[in-house]
Specification:
Layout: H1 7-27, H2 33-42, H3 47-57, H4 60-74, H5 90-126, E1 131-136, E2 139-145, H6 146-170, E3 173-174, H7 188-197, E4 201-202, H8 213-240, E5 247-248, H9 268-289, H10 300-329, E6 331-332, H11 334-342, H12 350-359, H13 364-381, H14 385-390, H15 393-396, H16 401-407, H17 410-413, H18 417-425
Parallel strand pairs: 3-4
Antiparallel strand pairs: 1-2, 5-6
């Protein structure tokens, strides 16, 4: 990813646009075929020479075309350099070449998405039936499985992957429409041919620049991907707390968690993921600010994109790799999860008990009052909720012992886990 956004690759993509333009125009009879051939064979540059020229002329594209023309002269083909940048304006090259860089970056991000999806699938199936307490507002609610948690992450990331495919495809767009988008010097057919040669579509309409809603949408989707990575990391941070200890990020042999406290095993990578996701989200604001430009073009967006596009793609690629590492190496303590399910001694089955009492004939308001009364006493005093329920004559008058036992049955609570997995992953009965 660093190479993609480096100066050398940027100028290589600029040169590719220039050469594709010369070749397409040669096919149309607007540029000598021999000149296009010589440009392809001999045109080059060095980053150092471009930077030296730019320091004098204060214009990056002029510095680039001058440096390329010098290589043509050095090769003995100065005459052919007359046809370099023929009919083009600066942003015909810059915007179109940037689309090529984004396409390269998108390929790496797509690979990262596929890797994390596979890691999440593996985690989900490994713990499909690993019972864990579900929490709402941070408080014990009802039993779930850890596999369901991973399946939820998988489903969200799969949507993000589909969004990313669409956003990346939208960004495979170039423009060769001239200084104000009117094709004053080249025809629309030339734009279509040039873009097609480098694997892009031509924008239906543009000013001197591509409309920046494309870039804003792309950056927003990167932020969504980062937010899902953060969601996973934040959950692990909570589960790694000493009081919970249900899951934790990998801790390598020889790793140290604190300079002062040798016992510490801190979720430092999870915290890093959460922090960097904030940075990617902050870039979305800047991308949206880039949409409104003065008239047919100003350059207020340009300096911003030199930061946010490399940063957002590099960080997204990094977060995908880090989150894949986290998911693949996650330490899951199924025993601790079961202990936490049992921690409140049956309180988490109060909802099912309420429904069973109502179904057995007790008014719901009465059932709620009775069940909550036992629950609050057990909460405060640390008693056994199930034992209290079994000893209540009003409850026994409505529910037989086997019916009470059924209200506290884990398998009843989790009987639909397989169906949920089928909905997420397809038929998993095998």
């Amino acid at each position: 990813m660093r190479r993609i956004w480096g100066e050398d690759n940027k100028y290589r993509q600029w040169l590719e646009v220039e050469l594709a333009a010369s070749e397409a125009l040669a096919d149309m009879g607007d540029v000598p075929v021999e000149a296009a051939r010589l440009l392809r064979a001999h045109a080059g540059f060095t980053v150092e020479r471009i930077q030296a020229i730019e320091a004098e002329v204060k214009h990056d594209v002029i510095a680039f075309t001058t440096a390329v023309a010098e290589t043509m002269k050095a090769a003995g083909h100065a005459e052919a350099s007359r046809w370099l940048h023929y009919g083009l304006t600066s942003n015909d090259v810059v915007d179109t070449a940037q689309a090529l860089q984004i396409a390269q970056a998108s390929t790496l991000i797509s690979t990262g998405l596929a890797g994390l999806l596979e890691a999440l699938r593996t985690l989900a199936f490994a713990h499909r039936d690993t019972v864990e307490i579900g929490r709402t507002h941070g408080i014990h609610a009802e039993p779930v499985t850890f596999g369901l948690k991973a399946a939820l992450w998988f489903d969200e990331l799969r949507r993000n992957a589909a969004r990313f495919d669409r956003a990346a495809d939208e960004m495979r767009t170039g423009k060769i429409s001239g200084a104000v988008g009117t094709f004053a010097h080249l025809d629309p057919e030339a734009e279509e041919r040039i873009c097609a040669r480098i694997g892009l579509r031509a924008a239906p309409i543009s000013s001197q620049v591509l409309s920046r809603d494309l870039h804003a949408h792309y950056t927003a989707v990167l932020a969504l991907i980062a937010a899902t990575c953060e969601k996973i990391a934040l959950e692990v941070r909570h589960l790694q707390r000493t009081e919970v200890r249900e899951a934790e990020e990998p801790f390598a042999a020889g790793q140290k968690g604190s300079s002062a406290m040798p016992h510490k095993r801190n979720p430092v990578t999870c915290e890093q993921i959460c922090g960097l996701a904030r940075l990617i989200r902050s870039n979305v604001q800047a991308a949206y600010e880039n949409i409104a430009l003065w008239h047919e073009r100003d350059i207020s967006h340009s300096s911003v994109e030199r930061v946010i596009l490399p940063d957002s793609t590099i960080l997204t690629d990094y977060l995908l790799a880090k989150t894949t590492w986290l998911v693949s190496g996650m330490v899951v303590d199924a025993t601790r999860m079961q202990q936490n399910v049992d921690l409140t001694r049956g309180l988490v089955f109060s909802g099912q008990l309420l429904l069973d009492l109502a179904a057995a004939g007790m008014l719901r308001e009465t059932a709620y009052r009775v069940v909550q009364g036992h629950a609050m006493r057990c909460w405060k005093e640390g008693g056994d909720f199930r034992a209290a329920i079994e000893a209540d004559p009003d409850i026994r008058a409505h529910l037989a012992p086997d019916q009470i036992a059924k209200a506290f049955a884990l398998d009843r609570q989790l009987r639909n886990v397989g169906k949920i997995f089928d909905r997420v992953f397809g038929n998993t009965s095998d």
